[in-house]
Fold this protein.
Amino acid sequence: MTIYSRIVGTGSYLPSKILTNQDLERMVDTTDEWVFTRTGIRQRHVAADTENSSDLALAASRKAIEAAGIRPQDIGLIVVATTTPDMVFPSTACMLQAKLGTKGCPAFDIQAVCSGFVYGLGAADKFVRSGQYGYALVVAAEVYSRILDWNDRSTCVLFGDGAGAVVLKQDKAPGIMSCHLHADGSYADVLSVPGTVSGGKISGRPLLQMDGSTVFKFAVKALGEVAEEALAANHLQTSDIDWLIPHQANIRIIQATAKKLGLSMEKVVTTVERHANTSAASIPLALDEAVRDGRIRAGQHVLLEGVGGGFTWGSVLIKW
Ligand code: UT7
């Protein structure tokens, strides 16, 4: 009998502090008009100094676990996608496991920047499908506010903090129909945080830097291609997609992707206006919102697609 994995619970968390474009006007030489017309962003959430990625992950995970109707002890595998871990090590997944009050199950981080959730879901899907774990928790949590140069108007206006989580369960039918993951490390310099810890000191500049227009062009191309790849692999047409949930970096990237696919924006879940770009967390945040408000319903086809630093990109196609 073929085993599949199915999402049986979703959850998300946004820090309470909201930073609007008007707030940013007082910090850097920018305007709400510039930010909104270029990106579709009006505001972003920013974590408190006391909140780390594992805290955001914990809040999102508790909601996903509750929605799945299980207990933390039932989880056989924890995967956390983050670019902003609590510390060099232990992994944020281990920190989360301890905060959930469970032990023994494997827990590891995935680092694929904004594609992290799609990568994490792809990895967890394989473990669940192998029959080894009955339930897997896949979480993406980010505190990008910690790696931004708040004096650089070309980057600090784009990002926000948040977390999203799902619980995967073994099932006889999909569930997750396909995962396609890609990377091209030759673009490393285009989007990076080129710093590390060395000899007890920070070496390099540990703040986000980006060639925005190269990222923009690559993202539109990659998101279009990976959607076509998922459709072809599953013998589906664009018209079979009920909901597209792309990485939420810029409404213009999302609109260009939908146009390329011939998909109406009414079928695209967008949160970028309120959340900004929360990197790996953006897809599960949008997914949780659309599940909880009833847009996503049983039997529908939901296509998740991410793109980010690396470059990395990929898709997960789900029958809900
Ligand atoms: O998850 C993946 C991570 N990143 C992304 O997905 C980002 C992808 N890239 C983008 O979203 C867009 O390229 C940006 C939003 C970053 C930039 O939009 P753009 O339409 O490509 O603008 P631009 O870079 O061509 O900048 C145009 C102008 C420049 O001024 P000059 O040289 O034309 O005088 C910038 O200095 O806008 C200026 N500018 C700003 N002005 C006001 C850059 N940032 C700001 C700002 N406020 N915040």
